[in-house]
Specification:
The protein contains six helices and two strands. It is mostly helical. The chain has one domain: Rossmann fold, CATH 3.40.50. A two-stranded parallel sheet has the order 1-2.
Length: about 150
């Protein structure tokens, strides 16, 4: 439907998103990372106190999943990609979670893998997952939780 002009072309992300991929992050985002990590710690303490186990999964941006979307959006503003890594937010949070004993389910890798053959894992305008994107995420989460999953 995109090719026929029935629906608009996929949007790649937001202008503010670029700084999320900057390593090291700018000062304002460094503070946001501190707050995020503290929230993970507080949530972990609460979940553990209640007898549960905290597991976190991050929904990647289309710019992280599709190299062409990265090039069209992030690359347009920063053609050399200096200091940018599309895997950085997921990798950083995943490493933090592992150090703290918090479960972390990687959704970026399976979405990237499926994204090589399926250009429609995200709706074009609101950037939410389509049914296909949800299926990839559900399968990865089921695997990460040690559950069987049949699409």
């Amino acid at each position: 439907m995109e090719e026929k002009g029935i629906i608009p072309a996929r949007q790649g992300g937001f202008a503010w998103e670029e700084d999320l991929y900057r390593d090291p992050p700018p000062k304002d985002l460094a503070r946001a990372w501190e707050v995020t990590c503290r929230l993970v710690d507080l949530l972990q303490a609460d979940v553990t106190t209640r007898g549960g186990r905290l597991v976190i999964a991050v929904a990647p941006s289309p710019a992280q999943v599709y190299p062409s979307v990265w090039a069209e959006n992030i690359g347009r503003r920063n053609p050399k990609g200096e200091g940018l890594d599309p895997s950085y937010p997921d990798r950083r949070l995943g490493e933090y979670c592992r150090r703290r004993g918090v479960g972390f389910i990687d959704l970026l890798t399976p979405l990237r893998e499926r994204g090589r053959t399926d250009p429609y894992l995200y709706f074009p305008i609101n950037l939410h997952w389509t049914a296909a994107g949800h299926a990839v995420a559900a399968a990865a989460i089921a695997r990460g939780l040690g559950l069987s999953h049949t699409p």
